[in-house]
């Protein structure tokens, strides 16, 4: 009998297992994958709020030891003007983009060191129930035999196609098809010099680049989800034609380097799923999948793990009902994740800027504290709801008018 079974052992699941094991709970962590292994469908930028959690948990040292550079400069090139800023209110004051083979392994190592049992190559099949309450799982061992394990709680951290979510009939809301989102095409390059984390925004298009492990940079372009897929043999030509049109400077720096791996091109459908039910909960992409345009998923997954582990620990060790205690996770998760998801989805439409948006960016160009707060929306240290509140937009407009008339 385990206290908690966690299905999925990457950033969301390994972090949850680590935090619970550190509190002395008996945790079983399973994954169909074997580790260390990469997860290529991600540009793996971990923003400031996520980095602060890694620091709090003592895991950031392993990321730094992998020679993954700290990212401290951020720019958004809007054509007419370039915004620069740093998210406020952070401990470490940097983002990092560790390859998943580094980040997921660091979290798993910490989970196992804390006493969690990791079983690899194990495919979750279904939940076990007592009435409507989940009391364990069935899964397939690497040799094909069936595994049955019981627990007081089951956590689905098995990504956006979550089989746990399907097994427990978690309902979805704020759903968007992948055509409503962004189509992201990226690759790794060596020998490229960057000016910090670079975002370039044009109507119907974005480009980005940042540094990662192995002296490489990850660079990509983002088009609307309705764009036709580039034929495999033409991706390079299409990528550089788009990049050239958006930023001849970044295109030249990328051309001067060497592409190190195959192109990846993908779009995702996005959603929120019911976070908690009797005996189960979801963390990370299993619970909320956010359009990659804001690179928000990993930071969001780490926050989910932190929130859920705290409530599970209270519920497992306190006198109250476990289900009642963990129920609070749903509202606490959604208070942060839903505005982030909707902001990301809106951005993913890549709509040409309205007059209001142009006015906002003009105001930000002359108002560094507010420009920093705008970057804080991405860094997840400022809520989109706060930043885009009528009061805050009015404050930006008023200081712009004062600057113009001065
Ligand atoms: C193109 C693209 C770019 C992105 N870029 C960024 C970025 O720059 N920054 C960022 O923060 N986020 C980014 N994301 C999102 C980010 O990758 C996800 O938010 C993150 O991977 C979620 O982590 P997770 O642990 O919830 O799930 P996952 O990383 O998907 O891990 C789920 C784990 O569950 C396991 N699993 C699944 N099913 C089963 C089963 N039946 N049995 C056992 N194990 C199972 C899988 O093997 C896997 O190891 C990007 C996404 C895409 C698509």
Give a verbal description of the structure.
It contains 14 helices and 19 strands. With 406 residues, it is of the alpha+beta class. It has three domains: 2-44 and 99-175 and 269-346, FAD/NAD(P)-binding domain, CATH 3.50.50.60; 182-266, 2-Layer Sandwich (Alpha-Beta Plaits), CATH 3.30.70; 355-405, no CATH class. Strands 1, 2, 5, 6, 7, 8, 17 and 18 form an eight-stranded mixed sheet that branches. Strand 7 and strand 8 form a beta hairpin. The N and C termini lie far apart (70 Å). The structure holds flavin-adenine dinucleotide. Flavin-adenine dinucleotide binds at residues 7-13, 30-33, 39, 41-45, 123-124, 157-159, 163, 184, 266, 268, 284-286, 292, 295-299, 301.
In summary, what is this structure?
The protein is of the alpha+beta class. 38% of the residues lie in helices and 25% in strands.
List keywords for this structure.
406 residues; 14 helices; globular; alpha+beta; binds flavin-adenine dinucleotide; 8-stranded mixed β-sheet; 3 domains; 19 strands; single chain
Strand and helix layout:
Elements: E1 2-7, H1 11-22, E2 27-31, H2 48-56, H3 60-65, E3 74-77, E4 82-85, H4 100-113, E5 117-120, E6 123-130, E7 133-140, E8 146-156, H5 163-167, E9 172-176, E10 182-190, E11 197-202, E12 205-211, E13 216-224, H6 235-246, H7 248-255, E14 258-259, E15 264-266, E16 270-273, E17 276-277, E18 280-282, E19 288-289, H8 297-317, H9 322-326, H10 328-348, H11 355-365, H12 368-379, H13 384-387, H14 390-405
Parallel strand pairs: 1-2, 1-8, 2-5, 3-11, 8-18
Antiparallel strand pairs: 3-4, 6-7, 7-8, 9-16, 10-13, 10-14, 10-15, 11-12, 12-13, 16-19, 17-18
The chain binds flavin-adenine dinucleotide (FAD).
